């Protein structure tokens, strides 16, 4: 059976359900429309838990295990008293058991990035956040902190839902800040020099704190504490212009040049008149702002994996007929948990974006793109969607083979199957 070695050894190793939450993270009373209208990207909101006991889907020991892997991004932040203030240190993982053994009792926080890619129970927390497009979600970072631990006063450029798990945390919120705000010097962390508390909350298991981008915040653990941060992709305008224009530049030739569309004798020969600026704006609009090209670029940009190495091409490339046969013989496919899927459908044209690739799809496949892109349980075999794609004919089989070959779909192997 064909396999994708890297994906198997890393993904299958961690393919686990953990404690799937048997309750919703957001309370029944949460009003999605009201939230989007009044809070999203605007102001913080403390959402008290739904009253049911919150059972963490992962244990602190499992997080420590993730922090020992070199393909999982982890950081350890410690703070020490210094001259009446606190001094912060940062270490990047991977860590060893000995590292953890040497830590003091208090004032440190271990952060593990993208745990949703490694743990089904954690990923399931995203189910409640479908009121925000899936391509906006970046990852779920988990922090485990000991008493007094935290990451210091800071702000993020993106929105975040901070779901409190184990223990309690005190959150002090400040005002809106930006990249001009003064930072504490000589620390690898971007910590705010002048943090002024405007709101002060203590959160308990199941409480959720939503913070918009650029809001100063400072969380401090009260006893041992775990926080699940759902972070979002918020590309910078500079990044958007840079990446879009580099892509468009690739199709431009040296002989495509500025032209005088309506030449006339100038009254002042040194003047660049308004007509020239209009002409340039028209030229840029025509080249840069073609709606089809912009949405294709954006689809590719937003589905670029957080860790591209975790979406390696399949070791054995399959043609559609071989894959069809393997599926008929019982091969099951699952989504690579590091893969990102999105689609567009406009003016009768459907386009699928997966892991930075744009795939134009015929009308016969358009109806299958929404379920294919649905965020869901990544370890659930895509049986129905595979059958539907194969029923749709050669285009469907070709799409499946392409997704398999580029590493976005993986064979669903049993944990105890060996590598050969
Ligand atoms: C934490 O979990 O303590 C930090 C998360 C954040 O501030 O973004
Ligand atoms: Co933050």
| Overall residue-averaged pLDDT value | 92
Count helical runs.
13
Terminus-to-terminus distance: 9 Å
- Poorly predicted sequence stretches spanning 5 or more consecutive residues: none
Largest sheet geometry: 8 strands, antiparallel
DSSP strand content:
15-25%
Number of strands: 16
Oligomer: single chain
The class by helix and strand makeup works out as alpha+beta
* H and E string: HHEHEEHEHEEEEEEEHHHHEEEEHHHHE
Bound molecules: succinic acid, cobalt (II) ion
Give the overall shape, derived from the CA principal axes.
globular
Helix coverage percent: 25-40%
- Using the CA coordinates, give the radius of gyration: 25 Å
In spatial order, strands of the major sheet run 1-9-6-11-5-4-2-3
């Amino acid at each position: 059976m064909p396999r994708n070695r890297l994906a198997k050894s890393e993904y299958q190793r961690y393919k686990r359900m953990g404690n799937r939450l048997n309750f919703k993270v957001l309370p029944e009373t949460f009003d999605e429309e009201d939230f989007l209208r009044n809070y999203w990207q605007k102001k913080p909101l403390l959402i008290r838990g739904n009253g049911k006991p919150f059972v963490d889907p992962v244990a602190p020991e499992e997080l420590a295990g993730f922090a020992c892997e070199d393909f999982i991004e982890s950081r350890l932040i410690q703070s020490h008293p210094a001259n009446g203030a606190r001094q912060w240190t940062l270490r990047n993982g991977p860590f060893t058991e000995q590292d953890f053994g040497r830590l003091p009792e208090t004032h440190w926080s271990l952060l593990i990035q993208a745990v949703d890619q490694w743990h089904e129970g954690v990923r399931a927390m995203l189910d409640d956040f479908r009121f925000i497009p899936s391509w906006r979600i970046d990852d779920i970072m988990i922090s485990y902190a000991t008493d007094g631990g935290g990451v210091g006063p800071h702000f993020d450029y993106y929105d975040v839902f901070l779901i409190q798990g184990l223990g309690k945390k005190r959150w002090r919120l400040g005002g809106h800040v930006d990249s001009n705000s003064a930072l504490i010097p000589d620390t690898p962390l971007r910590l705010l020099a002048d943090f002024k508390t405007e709101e002060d909350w203590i959160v308990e298991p199941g409480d959720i704190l939503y913070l918009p981008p650029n809001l100063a915040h400072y969380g401090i653990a009260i006893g041992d504490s775990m926080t699940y941060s759902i972070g979002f992709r918020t590309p910078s305008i500079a990044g958007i212009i840079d990446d879009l224009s580099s892509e468009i530049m690739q199709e431009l030739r040296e002989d495509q040049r500025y032209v005088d569309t309506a030449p006339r004798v100038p009254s002042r020969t040194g003047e660049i008149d308004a007509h020239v600026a209009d002409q340039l704006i028209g030229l840029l609009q025509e080249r840069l702002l073609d709606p089809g090209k912009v949405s294709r670029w954006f689809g590719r940009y937003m589905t670029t994996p957080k860790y591209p190495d975790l979406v390696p091409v399949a070791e054995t490339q399959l043609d559609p007929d071989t894959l069809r046969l393997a599926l008929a013989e019982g091969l099951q496919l699952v989504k690579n948990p590091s893969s990102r899927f999105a689609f567009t459908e406009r003016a009768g044209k459907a386009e699928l974006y997966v892991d930075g690739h744009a795939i134009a799809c015929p009308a016969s496949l358009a109806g299958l793109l929404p379920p294919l892109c649905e965020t869901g349980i990544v370890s659930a075999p895509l049986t129905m969607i595979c059958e539907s794609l194969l029923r749709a004919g050669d285009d469907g089989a070709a799409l499946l083979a392409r997704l398999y070959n580029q590493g976005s779909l993986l064979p669903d192997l049993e944990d105890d199957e060996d590598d050969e």
